[in-house]
C-alpha cells in the first residue's frame, strides 16, 4: 500500500467517478490506494480535479508566499540593520506558530479550503521572509540563490517523475517515509538537547551540519516524487476540483522545508 511522507496527501478523498479525459501528471492508469478519508458525497456537482486546477492553486499559494515573503524580508533587513531584532523574532515566531496551527487544522479537519491555504501561505511568507531578511543582511545574495535552488530542485524532480526516471514503488515510498521520520527525530533531539547545552553538531555550521543539510535536501527532493504521485492518482481517480487546494497545501509544505534547508546550507558554505 502506497502512502506519502506528506501528511496532507494521506487524507485526500477517493471518488468512484471515472476520471474520463482528465489527464494526470503522468499517463499510466490506476487507482488511489492508501487514501483513507471518506468518499466524496454522492451526486456532488463538483467536477473532477485536473492538472490545471493543481497548477493554478499551487501557483496562487506560492505567489502569496513570495509576495508576503519579499515584503517581510525587506522590512526585516531594515530592522536588523537598526539592530532591532525583537520585532524580527516576533514576526518569525508569529508566522511559524500561525502556519503550524493552520496546517494542523487543514490536515486533521481535512479541509480543502482556498482561504485557509492562502492564509497558511501568507503565514509562511512572514516566517520565511523574517528569516531570509536576516540571512540576506549577513550574506548578500543568499535569498536569490535559495529561491533559484528551490525552484531548480522542484523542476528537476517534476521532470524525473514525468519521465519515469525514478519509479514511485512501495519500497521507495517506505524508504522516503522512514527517512523523513528519522530526520524529524534527529531535529527534535537536537532541539531538546540544545536547550540543555548539548551540541549534536547538526546545526552549528560544521562539517556534520553541512552533511545533515544535504541529506535533508535530498529527502525533501525525493518527497516531491511521492507528492506528485499522490496528486496524480487523485486526478485520475476524479476527486472533486476543490481538493486542488489540498494538493497545493501539501506541495507548499514540502517547498517550505526544502527552501529552509537550502537557505541553511548556503549560509554554512558562505561562512566557511
TrEMBL record:
Superkingdom of source: Bacteria
Keywords carried by this UniProt record: Membrane, Transmembrane, Transmembrane helix
UniProt entry tagged with the keyword RNA-binding: no
Pfam families: BaxI_1
Record-annotated membrane-spanning stretches: 54-76, 88-108, 115-135, 141-160, 172-196, 208-231, 243-260
Keyword check for Transmembrane: yes
Protein name per Swiss-Prot or TrEMBL: YccA/Bax inhibitor family protein
Organism the protein comes from: Prauserella flavalba
Amino acid at each position: 500500500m502506497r502512502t506519502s511522507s506528506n501528511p496532507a496527501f494521506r487524507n485526500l478523498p477517493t471518488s468512484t467517478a471515472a476520471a474520463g479525459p482528465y489527464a494526470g501528471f503522468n499517463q499510466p492508469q490506476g487507482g488511489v490506494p492508501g487514501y483513507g478519508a471518506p468518499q466524496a458525497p454522492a451526486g456532488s456537482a463538483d467536477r473532477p480535479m485536473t492538472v490545471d486546477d493543481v497548477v493554478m492553486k499551487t501557483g496562487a499559494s506560492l505567489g502569496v508566499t513570495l509576495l508576503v515573503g519579499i515584503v517581510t524580508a525587506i522590512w526585516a533587513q531594515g530592522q536588523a540593520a537598526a539592530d532591532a531584532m525583537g520585532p524580527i523574532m516576533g514576526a518569525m515566531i508569529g508566522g511559524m506558530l500561525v502556519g503550524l496551527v493552520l496546517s494542523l487544522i487543514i490536515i486533521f479537519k481535512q479541509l480543502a479550503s482556498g482561504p485557509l491555504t492562502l492564509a497558511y501561505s501568507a503565514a509562511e511568507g512572514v516566517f520565511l521572509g523574517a528569516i531570509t531578511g536576516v540571512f540576506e543582511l549577513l550574506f548578500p545574495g543568499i535569498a536569490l540563490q535559495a529561491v533559484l535552488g528551490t525552484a531548480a530542485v522542484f523542476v528537476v524532480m517534476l521532470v524525473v517523475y514525468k519521465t519515469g526516471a525514478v519509479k514511485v514503488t512501495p519500497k521507495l515510498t517506505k524508504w522516503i517515509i522512514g527517512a523523513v521520520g528519522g530526520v524529524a527525530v534527529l531535529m527534535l533531539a537536537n532541539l531538546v538537547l540544545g536547550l540543555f547545552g548539548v551540541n549534536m553538531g547538526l546545526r552549528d555550521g560544521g562539517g556534520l551540519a553541512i552533511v545533515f543539510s544535504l541529506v535533508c535536501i535530498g529527502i525533501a527532493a525525493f518527497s516531491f516524487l511521492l507528492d506528485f504521485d499522490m496528486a496524480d492518482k487523485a486526478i485520475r481517480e476524479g476527486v472533486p476540483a476543490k481538493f486542488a487546494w489540498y494538493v497545493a497545501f501539501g506541495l507548499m509544505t514540502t517547498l517550505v522545508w526544502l527552501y529552509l534547508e537550502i537557505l541553511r546550507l548556503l549560509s554554512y558554505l558562505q561562512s566557511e
